[in-house]
Write a structure and sequence with these properties.
alpha+beta; nine-stranded antiparallel beta sheet; 3 helices; 9 strands; about 45% strand
Length: about 150
C-alpha cells in the first residue's frame, strides 16, 4: 500500500467499515475489459474470515462472467466529504476495504441464509420474503481470502 499511514491494521476496524458500507462493487474478469457492478450485500465474519453474500436475477452478464471465472474483487467505501488540504489542494475523507475471493453460487438453506444476511445488512432484519422468489434469482457467497482497509478520516 503506497500510503501506509492510511492503512487500517485492526481487523475489527476493517470489518466495521464493511458493516457501515451500503454497497459493494464487484469486480469480475471480463474480456477484453474488466466488469464492475454495484450490489446490495450481506456478510458474516467469524474466525478472522469474512464471507460476502449477494444475489441477482437468474440471467445476466455477471452470471456469465462468474461462470467463466469465479475469481472476483470486492470493494466497499464510505465517502465522508471532500476537504481542502494545507497546500491548497483537495482530498477525499473516506474509509474503504478491498477483498479478493471466489464467488460460488449457493442454493437451498444456504441461499436463504445468504438472503437473510443481505436483508439484515440492508436494514430489514426479519423481512419475510416469498421463498418462491428463489426460483427467479441466484444467490452467491464469496469467502474472502484477503481483506484490507484504508482511510483518510476527517
Amino acid at each position: 500500500m503506497r500510503r501506509s499511514e492510511r492503512e487500517i491494521t485492526d481487523w475489527q476496524e476493517i470489518v466495521d467499515v464493511l458493516r457501515r458500507a451500503d454497497t459493494i462493487r464487484l469486480g469480475l474478469n471480463g474480456d477484453p475489459f474488466p466488469y464492475v457492478v454495484p450490489l446490495s450485500f450481506g456478510f458474516e465474519e467469524a474466525g478472522g474470515q469474512v464471507v460476502v453474500y449477494f444475489h441477482g436475477a437468474r440471467d445476466g452478464f455477471k452470471h456469465t462472467l462468474i461462470n467463466n471465472s469465479g475469481n472476483v474483487c470486492v470493494e466497499a467505501d464510505i465517502l465522508h466529504r471532500y476537504a481542502e488540504t494545507p497546500s491548497g489542494g483537495l482530498t477525499a475523507k473516506y474509509e474503504s476495504v478491498i477483498g479478493f475471493g471466489i464467488a460460488e453460487e449457493i442454493t437451498g438453506d444456504e441461499a436463504i441464509r445468504g438472503l437473510d444476511l443481505i436483508n439484515d445488512h440492508c436494514g430489514y432484519h426479519g423481512f419475510v420474503y416469498d421463498h418462491a422468489a428463489l426460483e427467479r434469482m441466484r444467490v452467491y457467497r464469496i469467502p474472502l481470502v484477503s481483506l484490507t482497509g484504508k482511510r483518510n478520516l476527517p
